[in-house]
Design a protein that fits this description.
With 329 residues, this protein is an alpha/beta fold. The protein has two domains: 142 residues, 3-Layer(aba) Sandwich (Rossmann fold), CATH 3.40.50.720; 179 residues, 2-Layer Sandwich (Dihydrodipicolinate Reductase, domain 2). The protein is built from nine helices and 13 strands. The strands form two sheets. Strands 3-4-2-1-5-6-7 form a seven-stranded mixed sheet, sandwiched between helices. Strand 1, helix 1 and strand 2 form a beta-alpha-beta unit. Helix 1 crosses helix 9 and helix 4 crosses helix 9. The radius of gyration is 20 Å and the shape is globular.
């Protein structure tokens, strides 16, 4: 198949290149698109040296799949044009996620929301993906009512400019700033723009996307924080259920959950961390405990590689799900 990556020069774009090869996705021709300033430059990958093309030229190639990771404006302008040519678009931006006609898919969580009629599919926010993968089996068993979540998000979620800022600060080099403050030896409780309700866009993404994917009845209260970390996002989740849920019952529900890896042995100091999640596709869950005050509430610590499962892996899994549905149709 012809496969296109739009936004191929970014961190997620590079991760797409690695994962398509790693997962042996069936590719006969790979097309790479990026901003106009990158057109003509070459990207070195497991598929050899590939020149960056104009997005308009890639549309004319009529790829079977196009993975978008170039921002909302590019997705808004170009995704429908690919769809008109018969391409299946899987979009990593936030632009289409809350469109009622566009499915928002995490394959381990809501695969039945995707049909072969859908030609434009939205990939959720990185923080939402890892949370709903971990919480889906608990919602099925105990019926989640409320989630209070605090995130500790890697600078890689911002992009190459943020990684550069962090590395510059660690070397005492003055350079371009991705954030309004230093990030090295600091935490910034501010991801994306603030809204009138004093929550940020990143926080509201977690609210709205979780409700669209899991249930509109779940009340989500998030605080999203940028931390000087590379390797993955971490989340502290307090969950209130309709039913009582002991630690053992939660462990049992998570034990065979797709995409979940439990790391929870405090006697050995075993718990998830970004250095453990880095460069793999698991959603790691640990520090599992029933709430001190309520038997129908629990605490979880959730960690995952935001460039992989939080972005590129989930998008490729959506494409694999489509191929699977086609083969059984």
């Amino acid at each position: 198949m012809k496969v296109a990556i739009i936004g191929a020069t970014g961190l997620v774009g590079n991760t797409f290149l690695t994962l398509l090869h790693e997962r042996k996705f069936p590719i006969t021709k790979l097309l790479l698109g990026a901003s106009e300033k990158s057109v003509g430059k070459s990207v070195y990958s497991q598929y050899g040296e590939i020149a960056i093309s104009r997005i308009e030229d890639i549309i004319d190639e009529k790829p079977d799949f196009a993975f978008f990771s170039a921002g909302s404006e590019v997705s808004k302008d170009f995704a429908p044009k690919f769809v008109q040519k018969g391409t299946i678009v899987i979009d990593n931006s936030s632009y289409w996620r809350m469109d009622k006609s566009i499915p928002l898919i995490v394959p381990e969580v809501n695969p039945n929301d995707l049909t072969l009629e859908h030609k434009l599919i939205a990939n959720p926010n990185c923080s939402t993906i890892q949370m709903v993968v971990a919480l889906k089996p608990l919602h099925d068993k105990f019926n989640i009512q409320d989630i209070i979540v605090s995130t500790y998000q890697s600078v890689t979620g911002t992009g190459l400019n943020a990684v550069t800022q962090l590395n510059n600060e660690r070397r005492n080099v003055i350079g371009e700033m991705a954030y309004p403050y230093q990030i090295d030896q600091n935490l910034i409780p501010h991801i994306d723009s603030f809204r009138e309700n004093f929550f940020t866009n990143e926080e509201m993404k977690m609210v709205n996307e979780t409700q669209k994917i899991l249930s509109p009845n779940i009340m989500v209260s998030p605080t999203c924080v940028r931390v000087p970390v590379m390797g993955g996002h971490s989340e502290s989740c307090y969950i209130r259920f309709e039913k009582d849920a002991s630690r053992d019952e939660i462990l049992e529900a998570l034990s065979d959950a797709p995409g979940v890896k439990i790391l929870d042995d405090v006697s050995k100091n075993d718990y998830p961390m970004p250095v453990i999640a880095h460069n793999n596709d698991w959603v790691w869950v640990g520090r599992i405990r029933q709430d001190i005050h309520r038997k129908n509430a629990a605490h979880l610590w959730i960690v995952s590689d935001n460039l992989r499962k939080g972005a590129a892996t989930n998008a490729i899994q959506i494409a694999e799900l489509i191929l699977q549905k086609k083969s059984t149709n």
